Amino acid sequence: MRTRLSRLSRLTRRRARRTRHPRLTLAVRRTTTVLAAVLVLGALLLPNSFVALEPNRFARIPAEAVIGTVLLLCLPRVPRLALAALFGTGLGVLTVLNLLDMGFTEYLGRGFNVVLDWGLLDDAQSYVADSMGGAAATWAAVGAVGGATLLLVLMALAVVRLGELLAAHRERAARGALLAATVWMTCAALGVQTFGVPVATRSASGALEAQAHRVVDTLRDEAAFAKEAKADRFGATPAEQLVPDLRGKDVIFTFIESYGRSAIEDPVMAPGVGRALDSGTEALAGAGFRARSGWLTSATYGGSSWLGHSTFLSGLWVDNQQRYRTVTAGDHLTLTKAFAKTGDWDTVGVMPGVQKAWPEAEWYGLDKVYDAFDVGYEGPKFSWSTMPDQYALEAFQRLEHGRERDRPLMAEIILTSSHQPWAPIPRMVGWDEIGDGSVFDGIEASGEKAADVIADPTRSKEEYGKSVEYSVTSLTRWLERYGTDDTVLVFLGDHQPLARVSGNGASRDVPVSVVAKDPKVLDAIDDWNWTEGLKPAEDAPVWRMSSFRDRFLTAYGSTPHPTKG
């Protein structure tokens, strides 16, 4: 009884306010209705990429709005409210997925995968924390979660509001729905367009279908790839038949973060990067080294570097997280493990970007891994990068390459100074001045601020180019200074930088180079038709990154002994 009286009292007070302020009440109701309609129609017409986010996309008639109107008009109040709330919540979820698609397409060149990609959001928060500080990362996470939750609630309330309005004007709403359906079907049949896009659209249901297909394809791919990963052309090759032509050589595989084709061909970045490659080629030639270079098409784009690393070294196309988990949980032969399997090389990894446990080391066949905390660095971080590439290379020289040993060395090195956001960027110092890295304090303090570079696409391009120049220069000068007659260096980019830098529609190609003093090393790859020097020609061969392992093993004398899936 009290509850009923309380409800009546609230209704009485509400009616009294409406009576006292009729114009204000009417304005609020109309404004709320308009905002609800704009929110719902905007969500129904929202594309899933920034490129398509243009005003003409919102000058269309969504089929889902017509169908939803008819359904709400046909239902009594309670089912109508339930359906409206469910439809609104679903529309909110679709909007969140479209926004995630936009972000993933901008950074990784592909849409968001609801099965595989939730873990990457945690990586994104870690990246923000490393680049802009823990507080910024926390607020960004809170804002993202809060914004998504608010969007779901507002979308549900908006559809409920519109449903109640339709019910209050059922006859006029029915005529309007019939007219809209007629116009939609006519425009669809005749292919009518406005501002270059079709008037009749079903983009929301199309986006849902695309997400559903993506889920189904992912689940199918998981089973197919697990079988594919068990088959290996060199899986059963005896140790003595693996890379016999490189016996006695120190073989170093080096990945340069985000070193993509755009760095060499984009008019903003190409001049500086080109000079660094040309001067590196000349300096190495003076030290007795020659180089050959080509292109590889990476399995990833804009980020997820580990997918590029595993693709290059395993000979499998590892383009998503599920494939990565599958292959690293198995025993597929990696290029680095091939050296370990022979028993004739010490195998090490230098991973300055690794700051937590890294169980993949066993799968890669690395006896020892030096992570961010194992190389004695006491200098500043450079945004995401824990240390300058020059320091990482000098530490590798001090800890492994420069030591006397009974066996040659095979190393995998990841250089991180060209990781976004490309600010601040280290500068080269004298090799004898490096010490514990404290010499970089002043360089970091006087460098560009990450927030300033991230906000400006042109500066992002410029600073990205400078970071690649620095990484390439660090590596080539290290080889010039410390390389021996038996040093063989293979270096490449793991992926292109994000679309804001590489450009919309950019390829996934990255440069790859093989450098050595011994002429036999390069003679073995003559039939690859790669370009002389460190800069591949525009028309140099382009291979899938997954093809490199087998080509390399074959070139240096390995005998195939396949295992079947």
TrEMBL record:
The keyword Phosphoprotein does not apply. This is CDP-alcohol phosphatidyltransferase. Keywords: Membrane, Transmembrane, Transmembrane helix. Coiled coil: none annotated. The chain crosses the membrane at residues 57-75, 82-100, 136-160, 172-192. InterPro entries: Alkaline_phosphatase_core_sf. Gene3D superfamilies: Alkaline Phosphatase, subunit A.
